[in-house]
Design goal:
This protein has 168 residues and is mainly α. The chain has a domain of 85 residues. α2 packs across α3 and α2 packs parallel to α4. The protein is rod-shaped, with a radius of gyration of 31 Å. The relative contact order is 0.07. About 5% of the residues have low confidence. The protein binds zinc ion (ZN). Zinc ion (ZN) binds next to α7.
């Protein structure tokens, strides 16, 4: 057991410094990874859309689908349309709503066609498109109109019912 000679002490210090340098490098890499992870987390948070943004997106999508069908300009009723879609988006997920819009724009029922696939009719009848497939004609037995005057179509009936519910 003897004390290290000066040369040995220098060697030990040099080795320690080298090890520490490597450790600092590893720490730096580790921090870079943490930073990347933080960036990723922030990116996810940033893309988390607000209800208003989701409604705007849905409206844009509706306008696009409508234009595809009618080859015409769809005039939006900004605040009213956004409010209506926001209300729907509280219960229907954006993807689901998108799918329902596609089904709606393909619906050839006379009432829907007469309404030129309006957004108001879509919002009022959105539940129908939540079924796995669109039923072209609903069996008459499933439709019970309690309105006066009696509604000419099932869809018309649903629109009237939706309006009544919205007012209540
Ligand atoms: Zn009715």
């Amino acid at each position: 057991m003897s004390l290290p000679k000066p040369d040995d002490a220098t060697t030990i210090l040099t080795a320690k410094l080298s090890t520490l340098t490597a450790l600092v490098e590893r720490l730096r890499a580790q921090q870079a990874k943490s930073y990347e992870l933080l960036e990723e987390i922030q990116a996810v948070l940033a893309t988390e859309a607000t209800p208003g943004q989701l409604a705007k997106r849905a409206l844009d999508r509706f306008v696009m689908l409508w234009r595809e069908r009618y080859q015409a300009v769809f005039v939006v009723n900004g605040a009213k349309d956004i409010a209506a879609l926001k209300r729907v988006l509280r219960v229907v997920a954006p993807d689901d709503l998108d799918r329902r819009m596609v089904l709606y724009l393909r619906n050839e029922e006379p009432f829907v066609v007469q309404a030129h696939h309006s957004l108001a009719v879509f919002v009022a009848t959105v539940n129908r498109y939540g079924m796995t497939r669109i039923a072209g004609r609903q069996p008459a037995a499933e439709w019970h109109c309690a309105h006066s005057p009696r509604c000419p179509h099932r869809t018309a009936c649903e629109v009237v019912s939706a309006r009544t519910t919205a007012r209540a």
